[in-house]
Amino acid sequence: MNYLEYLRQPHYLAACCAVLSIVLAFAESKFSKQKYESKYYIKVGIIVFLNVFLVVQLIKNNYLQVDGIVSNQKGGGNVFGEPPRGNSNPLMESSTINPSNYVSIDTGNPNF
Fold first, then answer.
1. Segments making up each domain of the chain, as ranges
2. Is the pTM of this model over 0.70?
């Protein structure tokens, strides 16, 4: 299994986010010259772990719907990635730029 495949598992993703938040909290305390006890970092890690794990479980079990995230239980797509095969992505279709709308803009002599 590729090392990025582990992040598809909710507990590994939550643990990675918890470690990252502990490192960022430690770095922030070094720059602000405010000293924290080690139990502060443990609290931050536990809170982040629980939040990420619960949100991922809610999304995975279809209790929480988020645009752009397709659950793999009904459609065959990834939990955090691409939509099921055969379907187009509605987010990509909605944004188009029509250059003919900008041809008549005269920035040299504005009319007010």
1. 1-61+70-77
2. no
